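re: the backbone from monday

yeah here it is again, tokenized this time
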């Protein structure tokens, strides 16, 4: 499958605008591409108790999985402080918990795109961002 990273990153930027971040002000958006070409978006959703906060990546994954999706090709992740103009964004990487969720549902060839803009992005394979991941195969049967 050929991936249109420009489109995927733009959808992540659109999702970022829906972030609920009254505490940190750090807005994150994600756009998750299934192997069939469907996109599920997510934003980060903060909570005053902090622990119940949910990352954009997990929001996108949980939406997709709850709709029956199980095959994923790539995810685009964008983030930055509220009010940041395009081009001023940092590369925002998935946290460890999000990487572990990705390992649950994706193969080593799953692509993670982190972007400052649709024209300025880097691509990583899940296996490179989470080497030696713990997965279903590690559980005793």
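seq for it, each position gets an aa:
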């Amino acid at each position: 499958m050929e991936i249109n990273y420009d489109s995927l990153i733009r959808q992540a930027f659109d999702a970022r605008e829906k972030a609920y971040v009254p505490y940190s002000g750090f807005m994150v958006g994600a756009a998750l591409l299934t192997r069939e070409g469907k996109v599920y978006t997510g934003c980060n959703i903060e909570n005053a108790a902090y622990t119940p906060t949910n990352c954009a990546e997990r929001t996108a994954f949980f939406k997709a999985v709850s709709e029956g999706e199980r095959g994923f090709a790539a995810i685009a992740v964008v983030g930055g402080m509220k009010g940041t103009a395009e081009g001023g964004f940092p590369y925002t990487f998935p946290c460890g918990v999000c990487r572990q969720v990705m390992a649950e549902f994706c193969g080593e060839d799953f692509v993670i795109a982190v972007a400052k803009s649709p024209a300025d992005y880097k691509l990583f394979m899940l296996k490179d961002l989470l080497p030696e991941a713990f997965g279903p195969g590690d559980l005793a049967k």
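Residues 74 and 81 are 24 Å apart (CA to CA). The chain has a mean pLDDT of 95.
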